[in-house]
Amino acid sequence: MKSTLVSFVFMFIIWIANAQKRPEKIGFGVQAGWNMSRISGDTFDGKAGFIGGVHVNFPVFGNFYVQPEVNFQQLGGKYKSDAFAIGDIRYRDAELNMNYLSVPVLLKYRFKPIDLDIFVGPQVGFKLSAKNKVGEGENYEAYNVKDTDIAGVYGLEYCLRLPDSRVDLVVNARYTTGFANFANGEDPNMPNDSYRNNVLAFMLGIRF
Fold it and tell me: Global pTM?
């Protein structure tokens, strides 16, 4: 038992040494996963959606990296009972579906040799579509959703460096806090209020 423990510690030390000798390089990756979006205020309940895209990881100096990304992201929320109205008609089963092209720029600090990153950075979201879905599938354009959304992103990322391979596995967990009101309050198809997107996301990816 004692010899087994010594052997394990010895192998772990060798693995750490090899990891530290691994040359830093620019990494290109793809990622995809699940997010739960919540809109501020009392009008909406949360809604699950897809997130996925590409990134580039640049070593800067020491343990610091910069990682710009481009992600397709599904956001929105389910209207609470009687919150959605067209004229005098109120609908009980409705949801707001928004698709964004989200572009965060993350500043990362890596805890070596375990390859655990903490990151924070700004994000700009470019609206691709915004629609209100009512009942079994009637869709109405949500005209008062602005074309851009400003937010901040922070979270953790773990990189599993595969031995003798050019591919790394990446696990990413992040939270996005909306900084700006995404509704301009000029259309009756959505309540005229101040709303911000807040999103919890988990992604799995590979990096070359």
Answer: 0.82
- What does the longest C-alpha to C-alpha distance in the chain come to? 79
For residues 60, 63, 68, 74, the Cα torsion angle rounded to the nearest 10 degrees is 180
Interval 58-109: pLDDT, tens: 999 999 999 999 999 999 999 887 666 666 666 778 899 999 999 999 999 9
CA distance 51 to 17: 36
End-to-end CA distance of the chain: 39
Backbone angles phi, psi at 14, to 5 degrees: -60, -40
Name, in order, each residue with C-beta under 8 angstroms of 162's C-beta and a sequence gap of 6 or more: 168, 169
Going by C-alpha positions, the residue among 130, 173, 120 that lies closest to residue 151 is 120
d(CA 114, CA 62): 15
* Residues 164, 143: Cα–Cα separation, whole Å: 52
Residue 187 is inside which H or E element, if any?
A: none
Taking a C-beta distance cutoff of 8 angstroms, is the pair 31, 70 a contact?
no
Bridge partners (DSSP) listed for residue 205? 31, 170
Question: Quick check: 53 and 71 in contact, CB under 8 A?
Answer: yes
Strands (E), the chain: 27-39, 44-45, 47-61, 64-79, 84-86, 89-91, 94-111, 116-134, 138-141, 148-161, 168-178, 197-207
